[in-house]
Structures are given as structure tokens and as C-alpha cells.
Design a protein that fits this description.
Length: about 450
């Protein structure tokens, strides 16, 4: 996400490295590179120029603290300006109304139908809503079939009317159905086109007028760059929508849409799509996105994702097992499952400050844990419960059963043993050992992990 932009901005800050103060000359040189990085990211010339001027004005008015280098100060100013450009604060969706009505609009191929299901899943899982999906794309049968398949996947009903080619009537009938059946949220998927046309705009405008939804969300493919911003502007002029959804932000995008759509359309980005999985959407936080663009990671989002999977009772049980040295492969497997639920592994690593750069060229498969799971599932229940049983002959059997080499099985068992030791060290009384290790490290001693 924003890989190219992040690298170019980082290079631009190096211009100030070694300078003892910020001057008009070295700021101008840095901002020339910043402006070029923004233009390469498909930000419009006017916005890139205004952004650079705003940063320059703030930078030249700052006094350098002895503890802060000019480069660090420039990063802070650019960060704050990026966050402001993207909206400063997150914008919540309006859920008032019974049912709360959400109308989705956008071009064909923007990911609108997939986002409809993602939003339904989000409202169901994180907001405690009982949503109804409504299929109002009457021109493309595949869209209705896709929505039905996604609805079945997440356990959400999809309202359709076979033979009815009037999307306005379908939407009105769906409201009655939602009220009768006790649905308290309704998401309407509308028809898209390959390009903007009057017929489509008239149809969506008519649906909006008939429904009077709490939220009309414009869904746009962020990989289309500046075209995404132009399309957002055209739709807003007709629909006056409440917010923008940027899909495919995890793709090979230059990022210009995310940076500029708010300042051009004057409407907030409310959600971003970050993958194909049904839970791969995030509420948009401008400041956190600025962190990621500048390579600072996004620890807050990472912690939030971890907390969503955190089970207090299970954590207490696990802590007791670790303290008694009873951590086993069943527990190890549970930890893997929790990590998998958090999302794409490479994306998670990118949320850790400094890791994004390190992981840049790393190939992390979506199925990275499958080999590990195959090895663990090839163990007997007794072996998973008591790893000490895993002698040479058992390991060879597990290797054959899982389709892995004996070296891969040995590597996992070694990794498991190291994880167990580290977790034991960090739990309960083991914290004293950690403190001792830190003191040893400060004095040059290296702790012996094999004792």
C-alpha cells in the first residue's frame, strides 16, 4: 500500500539530513522532491503544489528543538499535512433509522457488490446489526448471483424480485420486507456502468429520492488513480453522497485517489477495501494512513485487530498452561488461527514500524500457515498434547503424512520449543527472567536460551 510514494518521500527527506537548521534553500530542495513524489502518485498538479506551499509555510515558521533534527521536523509537518489533506479525523457512518438505509453507487467493476457484502458483514459482526442486502442491479444477472453467493457466505439474507425490472420499486418493497422481518439495516446494491451516463445517474437519483437513505456511499476503485477523483466529483454533483469507499487499496495503486478525493469532493473517505476476503475492509483513519505512507507503521490498527480476536477467558487459561510448562501444539494451532483471522500477514507486518520496508520484497503467501497446519494435523492427539513424545520415528511419520520434509518438521518443532520458552519467560514470574536478560544485554552478556 503506497509503496512507491513512501520510498520517494523517504528519499526527499534525506535532502535535509546533515543540515543543522531549516532554511528556505534546503526546504525548497526537499519540497521539490515531495511535490514530484505526489505527482508520480497521480495527485493533481494543483493539489501537489498547494500541499508543498503549505508545508513550506509551516516549516519556515518552526523553531528547531535541540532534540529534533530538521529531517524529523519535516517528516512531522508532512505527516500532519497529509492527514489534513485526507480529512484529519475519521468519519463514522450514520446508523440512525429503523432500518438504517445504505445506498451504494459507483461504476461497474469498482467492487460495489463485494463491498455491499463486506459492509453487511461489518454491520453484523462489529455493530451488532441484522442487515438485509438488496439486489437492485436488474441488468446484470451475474451481480444478483454474486450477491446471493456472498450473502450465503456471511449468513445475511438477500432480497431479490425475479421478473421485476424496476429498481425503485424493488428498493421500496425491500423496506417493507425489512420492517416486517425485523431487519434493522438495509444495504442496496445498484447497477453500474463502464462509464458515467445519464440513464444510470437518473436511476440512482430516483432510488435515492425514493429511499431517503441515511448514507449514500460512492464506491470507487483506487487503482484508477486520478480518474477515481474525477468520477467521484461527477457522482457527487448528482447524488450529493455522504462518503467515499476506496476499494483495492492493497493493489499496485499510486495512491492519488486516497490523498486527494477528500479535498476535491469535500466528502470524507469512510471505508477502504484492503483485500478480497469478506472481512477485508477498514474504517478510514487519515492520521493512521499518513503514518503508513511515511513508513511509520500503524500500531493502533494492529492492536485493534488483535483485540477483536482476543478472548479473555482463553488468555487466562493459556497463561496458566504456560506458567506450568504445559503449552502444547493445540495451543500453538489456536494462536495461528487467531493471527489468520486478523487478516493478510504481509499487511499486518506493514503495520509494525520499520517492518514495511523490510517486508517490501518478501513473498508471503496467503496460505503461509498451511504447511504448519498440515504438520500439526498429522500428529496424533497425544503428540499434539505432549510434544515430548515426538521422537525420530514419529517425526518421519508426520513428515510423510503432511507432505513435508523431515527437515521442515524438525524446524517447526524447534520453533515451537523456542516460542514456548519465550512465552514462559514473559508470563507470571518469568518476567523477572526477562528483566535479568535485559540487564545482561545492557552489560554485554548474551542470555543462553538453551539452558
Amino acid at each position: 500500500m503506497f509503496e512507491g510514494l513512501s520510498e520517494k518521500l523517504e528519499r526527499s527527506f534525506k535532502v535535509l539530513k546533515g543540515h543543522g537548521h531549516i532554511s528556505e534553500v534546503n526546504v525548497a530542495e526537499t519540497l521539490k522532491e515531495v511535490r514530484k513524489a505526489l505527482l508520480d502518485a497521480d495527485v493533481s498538479y494543483k493539489i501537489a503544489k498547494d500541499f508543498a506551499n503549505d508545508v513550506k509555510e509551516k516549516a519556515l515558521g518552526q523553531k528547531i528543538l535541540t532534540a529534533v533534527s530538521p529531517g524529523q521536523l519535516m517528516v512531522k509537518i508532512v505527516h500532519d499535512e497529509l492527514a489534513r489533506l485526507m480529512g484529519s479525523e475519521k468519519a463514522d457512518i450514520n446508523e440512525k433509522g429503523n432500518p438504517a438505509l445504505f445506498l451504494l453507487a459507483g461504476l461497474q467493476g469498482s467492487g460495489k457488490t463485494t463491498f455491499a457484502a463486506k459492509l453487511a458483514n461489518y454491520l453484523k459482526q462489529k455493530r451488532g446489526r441484522q442487515p438485509l442486502l438488496v439486489a437492485c442491479d436488474v441488468y446484470r444477472p451475474a451481480a444478483i448471483n454474486q450477491l446471493q453467493a456472498l450473502g450465503e457466505q456471511i449468513g445475511v439474507e438477500v432480497y431479490t424480485e425475479e421478473g421485476n425490472k424496476n429498481p425503485v420499486k424493488i428498493a421500496k418493497n425491500a423496506i417493507r420486507h425489512a420492517k416486517d422481518k425485523g431487519f434493522n439495516a438495509m444495504i442496496v446494491d445498484t447497477a453500474g456502468r463502464l462509464a458515467i451516463d445519464e440513464q444510470m445517474m437518473d436511476e440512482i437519483s430516483s432510488i435515492k429520492k425514493a429511499l431517503d437513505p441515511q448514507e449514500t456511499l460512492f464506491v470507487v476503485d483506487s487503482m484508477t488513480g486520478q480518474d477515481a477523483v474525477n468520477t467521484a466529483k461527477a457522482f457527487n454533483e448528482r447524488l450529493d453522497y455522504e462518503g467515499v469507499v476506496l476499494t483495492k487499496l492493497d493493489g499496485d495503486t499510486r495512491g492519488g485517489a486516497a490523498l486527494t478525493v477528500k479535498s476535491v469532493v469535500k466528502k470524507p473517505i469512510k471505508f477502504i477495501g484492503i483485500g478480497e476476503k469478506i472481512d477485508a475492509i477498514d474504517v478510514f483513519h487519515p492520521s493512521r494512513m499518513a503514518d503508513r505512507i511515511l513508513g511509520m507503521g500503524d500500531i493502533v490498527s494492529l492492536v485493534e485487530k488483535a483485540q477483536e480476536q482476543f478472548d479473555v477467558d482463553e488468555a487466562r487459561k493459556l497463561q496458566k498452561k504456560i506458567a506450568k510448562n504445559q503449552f502444547n501444539f493445540n495451543d500453538f494451532l489456536k494462536q495461528i488461527k487467531q493471527i489468520q483471522k486478523m487478516g493478510n500477514v504481509k499487511d499486518l507486518m506493514g503495520m509494525i514500524p520499520g517492518m514495511g520496508k523490510m517486508m517490501k520484497d518478501a513473498e508471503i503467501d496467503e496460505d503461509a500457515f498451511k504447511g504448519i497446519e498440515a504438520i500439526i494435523y498429522s500428529m496424533t492427539p497425544e503428540e499434539r498434547d505432549n510434544p515430548k513424545l515426538l521422537n525420530g520415528s514419529r517425526r518421519r511419520r508426520i513428515a510423510n503424512g503432511s507432505g513435508n520434509s523431515i527437515q521442515e518438521v524438525n524446524s517447526l518443532i524447534k520453533q515451537f520449543a523456542q516460542t514456548s520458552k519465550m512465552m514462559k519467560m514473559m508470563s507470571g514470574g518469568g518476567m523477572k527472567n526477562m528483566m535479568r536478560m535485559m540487564k545482561n544485554a545492557k552489560s554485554g552478556g548474551v542470555p543462553n536460551m538453551n539452558r
